[in-house]
Amino acid sequence: MIDIYKLNAFVAVVEESNISRAAVRLNMKQPPLTRIIKSLEQDLDTILLKRLPRGVEMTEAGKALYQEAQSILAHAQAIPKRVHNIAQGLEGQLNIGFTNSVSLHSFLPMLLRNFRERFPAVSIQLEEDGSSALIDSIINGKNDIVFLRKPAPIGFELTNLHVLDEPLVVALPNNHPLANDQSAIKLTDLESYDFVLYRRLAGQDLFDNIMASCYQAGFSPRIVQEAPRLTSSLNLIAAGIGLSIVPKAIEDFWNKQIVYRPFSPDTPCIAPIFAVYKADQNHIRLQHVLQLLQHLK
């Protein structure tokens, strides 16, 4: 292993082309510097410098060492700053997970944008998955924070932060009998109609929320078609196969052949969003995210 101290001395001698001037640059005497260079040559078992009447000149091996030494010393000089930046949350990696329906809400891109503007050197790794897999990813440390439609179960020592409540709306084909009805829609108004929902495995939290709301209203929705994703269910709705209950944010993604109607204020349907994470005061990048979340709320 090559001593960084010796490499620094060698680089100084090369750049000054003179041991005496290099000794002045290093704030040391010439004899100790000469011994350092000889020791380095012994370590590498090769001659690095040719002694000239008025200075020194690199050998071919010395040139190779000089190029490597420059890279090594530059990297070594950068280590303290990098370590400090990571300790302050200014560098490193942040792993964020979310369900498909959460990704459609504007708060998420706004959060990511604000974070990147404040901490541009932090790498952000994003993962979209089902809620169960995302909770597992927090438990095993794969993700730092995930965003779900319901809080994590009790017993996993995870922290749940309520981010927001998003209204659910009815998505109807534009030729549906309820599409042009200007009266307030209640859940019970939907009982006799066909439903299109995306598969529970693709969005368990939102699916369960919709089903529970219908059960509380006194009926079980007649699901005639399931879609692999929330956004793909919009194609089926536009085709007239059925209606659906969707987060309000989805209105920004598709309005062709689809009419969105709010629920009556006395029977609102809400889909909350929660941030789930392990409480770790030493995870400074996570603390930065939580601070930004508080400002967005």
TrEMBL record:
<dbReference type="GO" id="GO:0003677">
    <property type="term" value="F:DNA binding"/>
</dbReference>
<dbReference type="GO" id="GO:0003700">
    <property type="term" value="F:DNA-binding transcription factor activity"/>
</dbReference>
<dbReference type="InterPro" id="IPR036390">
    <property type="entry name" value="WH_DNA-bd_sf"/>
</dbReference>
<keyword id="KW-0804">Transcription</keyword>
<feature type="domain" description="HTH lysR-type">
    <location>
        <begin position="2"/>
        <end position="59"/>
    </location>
</feature>
<protein>
    <submittedName>
        <fullName>DNA-binding transcriptional regulator, LysR family</fullName>
    </submittedName>
</protein>
<keyword id="KW-0238">DNA-binding</keyword>
<dbReference type="GO" id="GO:0032993">
    <property type="term" value="C:protein-DNA complex"/>
</dbReference>
<dbReference type="Pfam" id="PF00126">
    <property type="entry name" value="HTH_1"/>
</dbReference>
<dbReference type="Pfam" id="PF03466">
    <property type="entry name" value="LysR_substrate"/>
</dbReference>
<comment type="similarity">
    <text>Belongs to the LysR transcriptional regulatory family.</text>
</comment>
<dbReference type="InterPro" id="IPR036388">
    <property type="entry name" value="WH-like_DNA-bd_sf"/>
</dbReference>
<keyword id="KW-0805">Transcription regulation</keyword>
<dbReference type="InterPro" id="IPR005119">
    <property type="entry name" value="LysR_subst-bd"/>
</dbReference>
<dbReference type="InterPro" id="IPR000847">
    <property type="entry name" value="LysR_HTH_N"/>
</dbReference>
